[in-house]
Structure formats: structure tokens, C-alpha cells
Amino acid sequence: MKKEIRIIILLFLISMLLSACTFNAQKTSETEEEPYEDKYEVIDNGPVKGGAVKLFTTPIDTLNPILTNNRYVQDFLGLIFEGLYKLDTTGQPVPVLAKSSVLSEDGLTMTVYLKDDIKWHDDMSLKPEDVVFTINTIMDSKNGSVYIENVRNISSVSAGEQNSVVIRLKQPYSFIKNELTFPIIPMHRFINEKISDKKSKVNLLPIGTGPYSFGSYDTESSLKLRQNENWWNSSGGGDSNDTSSAVISTPYISTVEIKILSNLNAANNAFQTRDIDVLPADYNEFRKYIGRTDITLKRYTGKNYEFLSLNLKRGPLSDKRVRNALNILINKKQLIDTAASGIAVAAEIPVMPSSWIYQLKDFEQGNDFKKAQELLSQSGYVFDSDKNAYLKKTTKKPLELKLIVNDDNSLRYNAAKEVASQLSKKGIAVEISKIPWADVSKTMKNGNYDMALMGYRLSSIPDLSFAYSADGISSGLNVAGYSNPNVDNLLKSILSENNSEEQKASFIKLLDIITEDRPYIGLYFLNESVMYGKSIRGAINPYIWDKYNDISKWYLP
């Protein structure tokens, strides 16, 4: 029997080694790998306490959440620290440490009331002074906080009555709660300490209010967190219909170990060999794992938005009817399936489709070729079926477009080829110009193009000014050079309007105008993912604003 066990273990190890070699050899392959057979059945009888889960980070710069520049450190410090608010899956801010808020009539003062009886991990009470200290620390530019943009519209902050924080704004700002999602740190820990020293003792011994508290830290190998048995947000688990089972409080998992790895490649290898249990991955990484049965793979919409920027000043696309016709003729689903391996989400505007804003308008238009033909006819083009081409009625010149794309992005180039293929089949010839990224902006400035395939990486603030306002032109983010005074006024109104219904009405008007003017043709958001070892069960629901969402409800059966 022992001999058989040794043989089974040996065969398993060999298979793991071979699979790791296959993964490395097919690093750039876009095809799905052969499914991995899961050798183990995990019997799941519901939530249980205990066990350890292994995450990863790249080298740690500090354990102060408002000073770190490492996104992996930011992610796991979210288990220790909490903010006043967090964004839900629709992009709406929901209270965490905050209980409620009141805004003054002039929109310049917001009073945030804190939840009562919240304790730091050292058993000290959370106080308004902690929030004041955190905001002032971020506002001090000498500290170099990554959250300094979050507080750019705050003029001052002070502790108020009844466990409240009084925040005074430079101007009315409707998205202030979206900004107040940064971690709150304890003032009492930093008395007589130089907070800007990232490697100071106090900055390497984090004390928060979250579901996990600091355990130990080996600078060469790993950091360990332990469950916070006194977490203010702890809740009972288990089957509510099973009266025989005891109520189990969250978090379920006792220990979280964060392995310190050199880079993302090392993390991929560690996940392959099960040295870590969880691996967040972007589009380029997680598609290699599709089809594997020995892991749980959860996709979500990422921040990277791809679109066509159109030449509004000269050529055929200076006519918005032609721009809208192109939008109809491009089949976004087919584009995603062909160019992005099917792992993206179509989007008409630079707003995530799951957002409450995107839901304000029905963007579904289908591929209404008759409507596209009608728009092209109105703009002076007629379809010649013999030539399978749209010709200018007056000159008989074919409708031809130049599409530029940067030469160092294979995904974008594949998308450009698919766009060209689709339009050529509909009678519109497209020439692709593949040029260095440094030349893309030059080409757009001199106007020697019709379309440019580009991308935005979006922030958590649903302010579309960057892409559609006149101010966005000077910043360089409004790459189409689009300008409409009505749009500028609506964008300003949205930023300052604190009545939610009136803000929604302004958003609807804005969406109607920009989809009619069509300075850009939206294509898609690329998916990202988090992958988990099969042993992890429970509420596994990552999304872009919280990769470790609901980790307190994970368990190991």
C-alpha cells in the first residue's frame, strides 16, 4: 500500500512539473490549454473556522496604506485597514466606517458621522481625530501619498460633535464620497513619529480596523495576518435552517499569509506549484488558465477601455452621420470574439457597463445595416453593389479610411485588423497604418488619419470631462479634440449637483448628446480576473474595486 502511495505521489509531481513547463513554453499562446484534471474531491459541508490561505505581493515598500506605491501591497492592506466608504459593483459609494452624512445647503460642508464602538486592533477606539489625521497626512504633499488626488477638493477637515468629521470643500463636489475610500490610519500610533519615513518601525507595524490584524513580518519571505476576533463587522455564518449548528462568526479563515515574490512571473509559477492559493491576473495572464478544472477562475470588468478616436476636423468622419454609421457597422461582439479571445465586455462609452451611469441609457442598437445605409446616404454616399463599395455621389470616389495603431500592442493591432475586415465587407475600405507610439500623437495632431485605435485606463470617479470637455483637449486626454458647450455645461453641473435625481437627468442628457455626436466609437473593456485554488470556498466575488472582496466569508472545507 505504501509503495502504491509513493507511486501516485511521484506521478502527481511529474505531472505538475510537466504542466509548469508547458505553461512557460506557451507564454504567448492565445489558445486555451488542455484542461487540468483535478485529482481531489473537496467535500464542502459549509463554512468552518480555521485554516490558512496564501496570497502574494511583490517586494514591500511600506506597510502604511496611504504611503505605499505598490498595488499588491495596497490590495492586501485592505484586509487590515478600512475607509469611510467603499465602492460597490455599480460604482456607488457605500458606508464602511461612516454611518451617515449631512451636506450643507451650499454644498461646501459635509459632516460624516462615524459608526459607534469601532475598535482598532490594539483595542483603542476609532475617533474622528483619526480621520482628520489621515486626511491631513494625505494632503501634505511632502508625504507623497498615492491618494493626494482624492483630497484635492478638500480645503480643511476637523473633528465635530457626536462622533463626526467636518469636511470643508473648495467647491461643491458631488463625488466626494467616491473620493473618501482611502484607508483610515490611527493617529495615536504616529504621535512623535516621522510618518514620511516609509521604513520606520511604526510604518511596518500596521494597526487597522479590518477583519485581519498584523501577525508577523519576515522581510525576506512573507507577512502573516491573523483573524480579528473582535471585528466590528463580524457576522454569523452557516446554514440558517440548520438549528443544530452553532453560529460561526466571520472571518472564517484564521490566517492569511502573504508571500513576498520578486515579480508577477514568480507569482504565476508559485500559483502553478500551489505555493500560493490566490492570483489576481490581467487579460494577458489569466487567459492562459482558461479551461483548467483544478482552479476557480472569476472574471470581472477591468479598467482598460479600448476605443476608436475619430478625426472630427477633416475627411469623411467630420460628418457625425458617417461616424454613427460606422458605429452601427462594427459588430462589437464579433470584434471581441476575434481580437480579444472573447474575454472583454462591449461598451459604447468610457463607463463600465455595470455602472449605475451606464444603466441610465439603452445603448443596444443592434447591427441595423439599413439605418447605417440611410445615414451614409444622407451624408452623400451611395452603395455600388458591383464594386461592393460606398461611393461619393458627386465624385464617385470610394469611401476610404486610414486607421492608425501603435506597433507595440498586438491585441490592439488584431482589433484594428478585425475592424478593417468588418468595414471592408460592408463597402468601406480601411488602410491600417502601424506606427510607433511616439508617432501616434504626432500623426493625430497633423490630421493625417481618420481613426486611431486607443485606450483609457479609468479611475473610480465617473467624471467624463477628461474625454469630452474642452478642458480635456489641453490636458491631452480628449484625444479627439471634441468640443460642445452644452456638454461642457452638463459636465460641470454633474460635478456640482448633489440632488441625485437632477444629477441623473443631467447624465441622461449628456449621454444622449455624446452618443449623437459620436466623437469616439467605443469598443470594449478588457476583463481581469482572480484565480483561486479549488480548496477555497465561500463568497468568491471579486470586482475591480475590491479583488479580495468578501474574504471574511471564504472558508476551507
TrEMBL record:
Enumerate the Gene3D superfamilies for this protein: Dipeptide-binding Protein, Domain 1, Dipeptide-binding Protein, Domain 3, Periplasmic binding protein-like II
Q: Does the keyword Signal apply?
A: yes
Recorded hits in PROSITE patterns, A to Z, give: PROKAR_LIPOPROTEIN (PS51257), SBP_BACTERIAL_5 (PS01040)
Is this entry keyworded Transport?
yes
From what superkingdom does this record's organism come? Bacteria
| Residues of the signal peptide | 1-25
Q: Which UniProt keywords apply?
A: Signal, Transport
What's the chief localization of this chain?
membrane
User: Where does the record place the Solute-binding protein family domain?
Assistant: 92-469
**Which Gene Ontology CC terms are recorded?**
ATP-binding cassette (ABC) transporter complex; periplasmic space
Where does this one sit in the cell? Cell membrane
- Descriptive protein name: Peptide/nickel transport system substrate-binding protein
Family of this protein: Belongs to the bacterial solute-binding protein 5 family.
What is the protein's membrane topology class? Lipid-anchor
Q: Its Gene Ontology molecular function terms? A: peptide transmembrane transporter activity
**A Pfam family reported for this protein in Swiss-Prot or TrEMBL:** SBP_bac_5
One GO biological process this protein is involved in is: peptide transport
SUPFAM superfamilies this protein is in? Answer: Periplasmic binding protein-like II
